[in-house]
TrEMBL record:
InterPro entries: NAD(P)-bd_dom_sf (IPR036291), SDR_fam (IPR002347), Sec_Metab_Biosynth_Oxidored (IPR052228). Keywords: Oxidoreductase. It comes from the Eukaryota. This is Short chain dehydrogenase reductase. It holds the Pfam family adh_short_C2. GO terms for molecular function: oxidoreductase activity. Residues 1-21 are annotated as: Disordered. It comes from Grosmannia clavigera (strain kw1407 / UAMH 11150).
Length: 238
């Protein structure tokens, strides 16, 4: 296997592999020693950095079989705007995800069985506040509103893209509560200590394990059940 730590775009730097990334790459290497893994580090709360990733992929690939999106975080400090004027949490859960999909549609349409899977909150959609989609107005932004608004807009966007690109399968899935550090990562100071030391351990008692969530995500990516034009793994016959 050849491992590349590759910059993409003028704002990138080649960074030493972090321990979590090293663990992931070690697991991938054990599964497939012949594959080439290219690691691209970008802040995808920013649209321009998402565009850098898309451009990097498009200059090196002629088709894209699978696009998997799961990045996101919960902000416990209210609306936090990026340099581009978008809320960082909503950007990772909707704007950047959709931007990546739109930018890579041409490569997806070249694949024999293309699929886009976004792990967020499919099935948790609500009535949109169509006068304030970005929840900028005072009193409109909350943890729940940001989550449900992002999920609803993503589902609507996928439905639109699916009609325009009938060969591509679009899956928006809700994994439930998964035992990840999501709660503590979205907070700071005393709140972060409480989340990490008390709330997170309690939540983990009834959470889905990371391994189980990963197995289900792989099923969404490969099973014929979610196929528009064939897949990697056909459904078992009864």
């Amino acid at each position: 296997m050849r491992l590349q730590d590759t910059p993409c775009g003028p704002t990138s730097t080649s960074l030493p592999a972090t321990p979590p990334r090293q663990t992931m790459l070690k697991e991938l290497r054990a599964q497939n020693k012949e594959a080439v893994y290219t690691v691209i580090e970008k802040d995808v709360s920013l649209i321009r950095e998402t565009d850098d990733v898309v451009d990097f992929v498009k200059t090196r690939e002629t088709k894209l079989d699978l696009l998997f999106e799961s990045v996101g975080f919960i902000s416990f400090s209210g609306r936090q705007e990026t340099a581009e004027g978008l809320d960082a949490s909503m950007s990772t859960r909707y704007y950047s995800r959709l931007r990546a999909v739109q930018g890579l549609l041409s490569l997806l349409n070249e694949a024999s069985s293309p699929r886009v899977v976004s792990i967020l909150a499919g099935g948790q959609e609500v009535k949109l506040n169509d006068e304030d989609l970005d929840l900028r107005k005072p009193g409109n932004y909350s943890i729940a509103n940001a989550a449900y608004h992002s999920a609803t807009m993503l589902t609507l966007a996928f439905e639109h893209l699916a009609r325009e690109n009938p060969r591509i399968s679009f899956v928006h899935a809700f994994p439930g509560v998964v035992a990840t550090p999501l709660l503590s990562r979205g907070s700071t100071g005393i709140k972060r200590l409480l989340m990490a030391g008390i709330v997170q351990p309690l939540v983990s008692l009834f959470s889905l394990s990371v391994d189980e969530a990963g197995a289900r995500a792989l099923f969404y990516l490969t099973s014929d059940r979610y196929s528009s034009s064939g897949s990697l793994v056909p459904l078992a016959e009864d």
